[in-house]
Amino acid sequence: MSITLYHHPFSRAATVVWMLEEVGVPYTLEYVDIMKGAHKAPAMLAKNPMGKLPVLTDGDVVVTEVAAIGLYLADRYAAGRLAPTLDDPARGTYFRWALFAPSVIEPGSMAKAAGWDYKPGQAGWGTHEAMLDAIEAAVSHGDYLLGDRFSMADVIFGGTVRYMLRFGMLPNRPAYTAYAERLGARPAAQAAEAKNGAIVAEHGLGK
């Protein structure tokens, strides 16, 4: 199979580069100029009707949504290494925190920033303070979400935490920043940042 990531460094596709570097399989980056609306072109909408990045193709398979891409790549190419095996009880914790990022952290942070008026008991993400405490609990029982074992859940969950810390969308709690620093020290994370940075420079995006 040939893996292609439709990519822009200022989109969530930047995190998928980190995923691919952790998995360690060959892949191609296909630049999509979101500044010119290329993500809404018919060819892209055929792959993702949402008209958003990231989009990953693996042969004839099309996967969208950061968490789904990460879970797919780990199961297909790094089972037992980046994804607990099917009979490993840790798989429950793995899915729990991998899916917490898009279903709780992102909407919960958006609700807080936008001042949404909602009833916490009716929203899947609950209260903002409970969300913050849950993040802290998740990263306070070892170096990673599965204790001393790094997994793709750390890329999904940790990628969100790192991004939000960088842009002031989460408070700088010591447990958050220490976790983000551990993730940032990983060679695959650094390789992904270098690749994303090179594309920023190539296309003059930092100007």
Give a nutshell description of this structure.
The protein is α+β, with helices and mostly antiparallel strands.
Mind explaining what this structure looks like?
- The structure is a single chain.
- The chain has 207 residues and is of the alpha+beta class.
- The protein has 2 domains: 3-81 and 189-202, Glutaredoxin; 90-187, Glutathione S-transferase Yfyf (Class Pi), Chain A, domain 2 (Up-down Bundle).
- Helix content is 52%, strand content 8%.
- The chain contains 8 helices and 4 strands; from the N terminus they run βαβαββαααααα.
- It has helices at residues 13-23, 42-47, 66-77, 90-114, 128-138, 152-166, 174-184, 187-202; strands at residues 3-7, 28-31, 55-58, 61-64.
- It has a 4-stranded mixed β-sheet with strand order 2-1-3-4, covered by helices on one side.
- The longest helix is centred in the middle third of the chain and has 25 residues, at 90-114.
- The chain is globular, with a radius of gyration of 17 Å.
- The mean pLDDT is 97.
Strand content: 5-15%
Assembly type of the chains comes to: single chain
Helix fraction bin: 40-55%
Query: Could you please say which CATH topology of the largest domain applies here?
Result: Glutathione S-transferase Yfyf (Class Pi), Chain A, domain 2
